[in-house]
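Prompt: I keep going back and forth on a fold encoding question. Comparing notes only helps if you start from a blank page. Show me how you would write down a chain together with its backbone fold. Please set it down just below, with no commentary around it:
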Amino acid sequence: MKDALTITLKDLLLLSRDRRALVILVAMPMVIIAIVGSSTGRLRAAREQNQQGLKLQFADFCQTEVSRRLAGFLASYDNVLVQPLNVPDPKNSALLNTLKSTLPPEDQDACLIVGPEFENIVRSKTPKELTAPDETTRAGGLKALDLDLVFSAKSQDPMTEGLSKALIKLSLQNALLPIIAQKVPAFRGAARQSTIPPSWASKAANNPQETGNPANRVYQFFIPSYTVLFVFFLVNVMGRSIIGERDTGTLRRLQISPISPASILIGKTLPFLVLSLLQTVILMLSGRVLFGMSWGPEPWLLLPIMLCTSAAATALGLLFSTVARTESQVSSFGNLILLSSAGISGCLVPRAWMPPFTQKISLMTPHAWALDAYSEVLTKDTPAMSVILGSCTALLVFATVFFVCGLLRFRSLQH
């Protein structure tokens, strides 16, 4: 082990002077993430934001149990985000008229304004009008109930308008159940069981990751993919390093020395393991500082994933360096292997977009297991330890197989 550490310290010193390796492993990933992130990341963030559903402001000038029920049932839909507006004085007619005449901000689709006469108008309706699905709002529309729906400039289209009104009508049926039960005894049981769902504001407080800035949240998918991609670029750097020592005769002198082949390979592998871990830490820190990427609810779980991914990458680099004979082979075959495995594993294209059969094939690469582990930590509210443990175990199996094959290949070259 002492001989291995001696080789490790010597190679670390040489690597610190290798500017080409530092550029490939650290500088180039940061530049590409910054460039591609400013374009692709923003486009994916915009698409994610569009897929969040209907975003609705809610201004309550009635402030009764029925109006609160209306807000709660609207917010209970999975694809509806309700933002309550502060109405300190329900009798403030100036604020009411301002909201009716002002378009909502562009990050919202519409604003539903509940007027002060809403409950009084509803209570004046007949049982037939209250129990018929469309009868309540058919004559005069929502305005007949003192409800005003104002759309933002980006959402003034028939589809958004129709969807919004349909959801409001459905929510009204649940919101009005207590009033209906007072006039129609058959509905009393349903009214007793009908409770206001948790408001969107309380759900947002319990799930801050879901309400964060999508432009930042998207990097939790984007940065790990490129991190895993460039961690395995270590294969090329290791191949060139060992071929260089073979050409200068340094490796031959180590082989005829009393140092065991395993100690030589461990000593040659550890410096690149350290460099790979340093590369991953720098990229993760850059993602946090430059793009506001979250490290998930349990950031410490990133450490075993980093270690196992780097171990698999360095062991693969060791195996490849015992197979490649020249630097041209390292450049051509190395890049072919790296880019093809990165593409099929999900580093370049999300695995969810791939056919099911391709997704199964991708598990033959260590990249896919690393991405699964990173995704579990960075995107889940409660990471599943079984998924992380399974992914890390698979990465260690890859590392062991690569190292053993590299060791056998290295020993065969001595004869």
Summary: The CA atoms of residues 41 and 143 lie 42 Å apart.
